[in-house]
Amino acid sequence: MKKSAIVLFSGGLDSTTVLAIAEDQGFDVYAMSFDYKQRNRFEISTTKKIAASKQIKEHRIVDIDLRAFGGSSLTSDTEVEKNRSFDEIGTGIPATYVPVRNTIFLTYALAWAEVLEISDIFIGVNALDGSGYPDCRPEYIAAYQNMANLATKRGTEGKSISIHTPLLMLGKNEIIAEGLRLGVDYSETNTCYDPSDSAVACGTCDSCLLRQRGFHQLGIEDPISYQQRLTKK
Q1: Looking at residue 79, which CATH number applies to its domain?
Q2: Contact residues for 167 (Cβ-Cβ < 8 A; gap 6+)
Q3: Are the beta carbons of 59 and 33 closer than 8 angstroms?
Q4: Rounded to whole angstroms, how far apart are CA atoms 215 and 130?
Q5: Does residue 233 fall inside a structural domain?
Q6: Angstrom distance (rounded) from CA 114 to CA 30
Q7: Interval 86-110: pLDDT, tens
Q8: How do residues 141-176 score in pLDDT, each as one tens digit?
Q9: Which domain holds residue 204?
Q10: Does 232 map to a domain?
Q11: What is the CA angle 71-44-14, rounded to 5?
């Protein structure tokens, strides 16, 4: 029998690549997305469109409101940082960090895994893309996996929970290359932190800049539209 896995799925470049990796590894995929009242409201429709084009077992969208706490430019009216240099992007924790978002998302996935009797959860965290998010570090993932096995029925019964992070130590160009190898259509993905009202990526937030640089490093044109494209370097 094929094994099943839950994939945390935002419709962005990274999580769409992770979904393809899980499928390539032979897992039946249950995709979990979140409407957490994020600034980029187009994420939800993007996840629906991509999930519909895949042979996944189920796509579940969880409705929560992280604007109740704010603390991030993605869940408040704080401006998204734009036009930062790559040196600046690689320093400190940016305003787009959503407090304990990955802990919240993983916990929902863990609860669903208990119900479905699934032991494998995939998440597209990355420690090298310059985000500086504390919940994207290898030691955080290791600690969460340890907690998951202590806190769940499956874990206490010896059915270990595994948190898979296939992108953890890859550069953005390596992530894109792997996705292209697996047939990912990146024109469908939505990565921007602050798109226009017509869903066009800004091109100047950290996420857009890192994405564009990854394509440039591969010598490939990014297939999505931007309000402002990064000059090739």
Answers
A1: 3.40.50.620
A2: 14, 17, 18, 124, 125, 126, 175
A3: yes
A4: 16
A5: no
A6: 13
A7: 989 988 899 999 999 999 999 999 9
A8: 999 999 999 999 999 999 999 999 999 999 999 999
A9: 4-218
A10: no
A11: 75
